């Protein structure tokens, strides 16, 4: 809470100043501070107090495959998915992780160690979430090997396809593209499959699905993610990885996540209080402002997303992804161009694409977003102005 108060002060104080100043704006990382205002309004409603004698053990429930998962968090996760209708939790094991980043690595370990032939190829369709490249290559494991774009993948042998839907960086809804079921496994990353980002059109029901607390509510600092896993052997292997890697997951974080997830579920049908109503309006208004600037000039491109009926909101809604996949109409390194304007973004080359695309975080604080829109407006006509 103290942290919140401090940020509140510095945010509002620096607001006007930042609009006038020419500070560097970092929209490279997807740090989800956009929702902080909503949580500030909750005041002490989601404050968690933990006495010193509590939560001291490594263990949570030794009868559970995931023995370090707090039973209350398990209930909260199931209740939230039930209320939103975005994923099936029945007949599945829940594995909690230190963010879904850790779970993705646990899943790569689990799935590849269960294949007979190694190394297992890891692929994702371009443009992909750039961190997958590091997650699949950093430790130079002999179990698996990063093979890049799933669309051009033609190697024989076992593979794992990472499918992010809606996709980071371009916000599109995705399905697997490699279709050799007999020797392939899929990890479905649903970090952004929540109604403030995209219409909930179906209840996802795959073998291995990843979710993260970070991108639902913005509490990335708690480092909580979860996997919904059908196969007990895969769940056990993931738990083995997490045990060796970090002997479980912080119980303080699990407790905080439980309180906040329960609040989401409790208020999700009350329009004035619902986080998802707030988040949807917030993201929608940012996208409208961005599109207005892009469409008023002739230099940039943005993807268009079809509207769809959202089962959660009970109406047809638009898509407002967490990242903007901004393109430049000419062959030019857009990341460098924006860097000259002191806006840091992630270059398309990091996502397996061309440098004329960049990934821009739409999840920053208001003042950074305002400055970004202002600076973009100053360069949108650049092409026309050039000789
Ligand atoms: N998957 C995707 C697609 C993401 O964008 C992110 C965060 N940028 C993650 C996973 C990881 O989230 P975390 O580790 O914070 O749970």
TrEMBL record:
Compartments in which it is found: Cytoplasm
Classification via InterPro entries: Alliinase_C, Ethylene_sulfur-biosynth
Pathway: Plant hormone metabolism; auxin biosynthesis
Ranges where the Alliinase C-terminal domain occurs: 25-379
UniProt KW keywords: Aminotransferase, Auxin biosynthesis, Cytoplasm, Pyridoxal phosphate, Transferase
Cofactor: pyridoxal 5'-phosphate
Any one GO MF annotation of this record: L-tryptophan:pyruvate aminotransferase activity
Gene Ontology cellular-component terms listed: cytoplasm
GO biological process, one term: amino acid metabolic process
Catalytic activity of the protein: L-tryptophan + 2-oxoglutarate = indole-3-pyruvate + L-glutamate; L-tryptophan + pyruvate = indole-3-pyruvate + L-alanine
Family, similarity comment: Belongs to the alliinase family.
Protein name: Alliinase C-terminal
Protein's organism: Arabidopsis suecica
Lineage: Eukaryota, Viridiplantae, Streptophyta, Embryophyta, Tracheophyta
